[in-house]
Amino acid sequence: MTLHDLPLLNACLNATTAVLLLAGWIQIKRGNKEAHKKIMGAAFCVSSVFLASYLLHKFTVGPKLFPMQGWVRTLYFFILIPHTILAVLNLPFILAVVWFAVTGQFEKHKRLTPWVWPVWMYVSVTGVLVYLMLYRWCA
Q: Is this structure's pTM higher than 0.85?
């Protein structure tokens, strides 16, 4: 594996996070708090590995410019821009909901997660789409 393989790894990590987020949501809706705790912990860990890998790639390899023109370029930026903004803005909120859960502040955790979870899911799914558009469909 080289640094140039990291975008594929990152897409896999994003996809895994999305699956874990969905599984964690299902478990809490079923009332299975213990499974929810383990799955969401795994989602947080996978996301943390993603962030480290993403930053390593960007600081060593650098950005990749989108090669296409026309409507597909507009679509790419329509997905990329909110993905990027929401990823940055959501990070402190993810840290907060994890902190609230770990420290037993469940009312605060439950109050914040209806806003944080959908954004985290959106960022994870659109991260895979950005990868596919940049490295597979339009490469």
A: yes
What is the identity of the amino acid at 23?
A
- Tokens linked to 89: 């803005």
Kindly state the tokens that stand for 15: 């996809």
CA distance 26 to 22: 6
Distance CA 106, CA 45 (A): 20
CATH of the domain at 85: 1.20.120.80
pLDDT tens profile 63-89? 888 988 999 999 999 999 999 999 999
Domain range for 120 is 3-137
Work out the number of other CB atoms within 10 angstroms of the CB of residue 49: 15
